[in-house]
Amino acid sequence: METDLLNPSSPYSASKTAADLLVNAYHVACGLEVAVARSTNNYGPNQHPEKLIPKLITNALRGKSLPIFGSGQNIRDWIFVDDNCGAILTVLEKGEKGQIYNIGGGNERKNLEIAKEILRCLSLPEAMLEFVPDRPGHDFRYFLNCERIHRLNWTPRVGVEEGFQKTIDWYKGGQWWWRPLVRSMR
């Protein structure tokens, strides 16, 4: 629920929690009209190749191994970027000021499942998977109860299989965009 206690376990998640608290403090102390949108993991075209799905796709397209943290059992809910943008617009237009809205795609997957699906879509072998040491403080599962935003008559439209295929197709055709980024990440 949006009212559940936040308990970040890494500097990254702590920074997101701090942003939520700061925005809420401005609402309470200064009357600023705000609504907070908490989204699950986004994916889609044009996402920086440092993020999980673009990293896996761009590595696969370059014939490189697909790095999987730990055992790959970490679970995330995935939402296609267009659906997330639609949800944020819904919060802006219909949301109650001072409220928090969880935004999720209803597509929970283990990181290992994501990697295997990408390899399957590209007709590549699972031998390309490479298990690497897990990150310190790496959260096991992110899950959001999204009932509040559903009451605003918003639901995601793009299923994960369709979204993955759109994303993979974009990275196949968008190598002019991501290859310089990958080179600069070395």
Brief characterization of the structure:
With 186 residues, this protein is an alpha/beta fold.
List its traits.
single chain; 186 residues; alpha/beta; Rossmann fold; three-stranded mixed β-sheet; two-stranded parallel ribbon; globular
Structure overview:
The protein has 186 residues and is an alpha/beta fold. It has one domain: NAD(P)-binding Rossmann-like Domain (Rossmann fold), CATH 3.40.50.720. 45% of the residues lie in helices and 15% in strands. It has seven helices and seven strands; from the N terminus they run αββαββαββαβααα. It has helices at 11-30, 52-61, 81-94, 111-121, 147-150, 160-173, 175-184, and strands at residues 36-39, 41-43, 66-69, 75-80, 100-103, 108-110, 129-132. The chain has a three-stranded mixed sheet with strand order 2-4-6. The chain has a two-stranded parallel ribbon with strand order 1-5. A two-stranded parallel ribbon has the order 3-7. The longest helix has 20 residues, at 11-30. It is globular, with a radius of gyration of 18 Å. The model has no long low-confidence stretch (mean pLDDT 94).
Write the topology of this structure:
Blueprint: H1 11-30, E1 36-39, E2 41-43, H2 52-61, E3 66-69, E4 75-80, H3 81-94, E5 100-103, E6 108-110, H4 111-121, E7 129-132, H5 147-150, H6 160-173, H7 175-184
Parallel strand pairs: 1-5, 2-4, 3-7
Antiparallel strand pairs: 4-6
The secondary-structure element order is HEEHEEHEEHEHHH
Count of folded domains: 1
Overall pLDDT confidence: 94
Q: How many helices in DSSP terms?
A: 7
Taken as a percent bin, the fraction of beta residues is 15-25%
